[in-house]
Amino acid sequence: MPDVVVRLWGRFADQLGQRELRLKAKSLKELRETLQKVLNSRNFSLAINETITNEDVLLNGGEVVDVIPPVSGG
Amino acid sequence: MENIQIVKGPISQNTLMEIISDVSGNKPDGAINVFIGQVRADETDGKHVTAIEYEVHQSMAVKELNNLLNFITNKYKLNRMVVIHSEGLVPAGKWSLLVVSTAPHRQQAILATKEFIDLMKKHVPIWKKELFDDGSHQWV
Q1: A59, B22, B57, B82: least CB-packed within 10 angstroms?
Q2: ipTM more than 0.90?
Q3: B111-140: pLDDT as tens digits
Q4: How far is B105 from chain A (nearest CA, A)?
Q5: Is B130 within 8 Å of B138 (Cβ atoms)?
Q6: Residues of B in Cβ contact (< 8 Å) with A72
Q7: DSSP per-residue letters across B77-134
Q8: Tens digits of per-residue pLDDT, B46-98?
Q9: Measured between CB atoms, which of A9, A69, A74 is closest to B117?
Q10: Which residues lie closer than 8 Å to B62 by C-beta, 6 or more apart?
Q11: pLDDT 10s digits, A18-28
């Protein structure tokens, strides 16, 4: 199963005490489901290689996926 | 001066003066609108905010800020927009955001600044952690 690098930001990095995870997932849908359990939250977006996507896509391995909590700049 | 900048810590008054100096004197402009965002010492459950720590996804934030800047500049026909945002620790009472818009007329510049900030708060990957005077914190 493909291995992806998952980068955590804001409250999620704080919550898990780390900024990066390596997870196995065949698709973005599967990765999202895993992250919902790990983070105990559904309130995030995912960006593959720095582009936010809401669609399900197959993962080949080697992708960098950012977990984006609700933003609050300013 | 770059139109988009992420700077470490508070934004200085000198930075504002540099921007004003940079955008001033363009004769088609009749308005220069300045918005300054300052960290507020909010009170929550008897605790006071002493600072905000800003976390920024640099590459995505700069890309998204540029997209918004281009969208707003075209929509309101601005001649110039400059945006400075802080990263890292900014104490209460210090500045964390500057948005300067220039346009032929004041209405354009004021509305453009407001819409830019509204969109920025919804779309740009920047997060705020409030630090309290009792040592605790919360993400907002």
Answers
A1: B22
A2: yes
A3: 999 999 999 999 999 999 999 999 999 999
A4: 25
A5: yes
A6: 121, 126-128, 139-140
A7: T-SEEEEEEEEEEEETTSEEEEEEEEESSHHHHHHHHHHHHHHHHHHS-EEEEEEETT
A8: 999 999 999 999 999 999 999 999 999 999 999 999 999 999 999 999 999 99
A9: A74
A10: B4, B6
A11: 999 999 999 99
Q: Which CATH class is domain B4-139?
A: alpha beta
Rounded to 10 degrees, the C-alpha dihedral B23/B26/B31/B37 comes to 0
CB contact A55 to B (< 8 Å): no
Rounded to 5°, the CA angle B76-B79-B84 comes to 90
Interface membership of B54 toward A (CB under 8 Å): yes
Tell me how long chain A is.
74
Q: Report the residue of B42, B90, B136, B139 to disrupt the A interface, i.e. the one with the largest count of A CBs within 10 Å.
A: B139
Which tens digit of pLDDT belongs to each residue from B19-52?
Answer: 999 999 999 999 999 999 999 999 988 999 999 9
* Residue A55 Cα, gap to closest chain B Cα (Å): 18
Structure tokens that stand for A9 in this block: 């930001």
Residue A32 has pLDDT above 90, yes or no: yes
CATH 3.10.20.30 fits A3-68, yes or no: yes
Cβ neighbours of A58 (radius 10 Å): 11
Report DSSP state, residue A58.
Answer: B
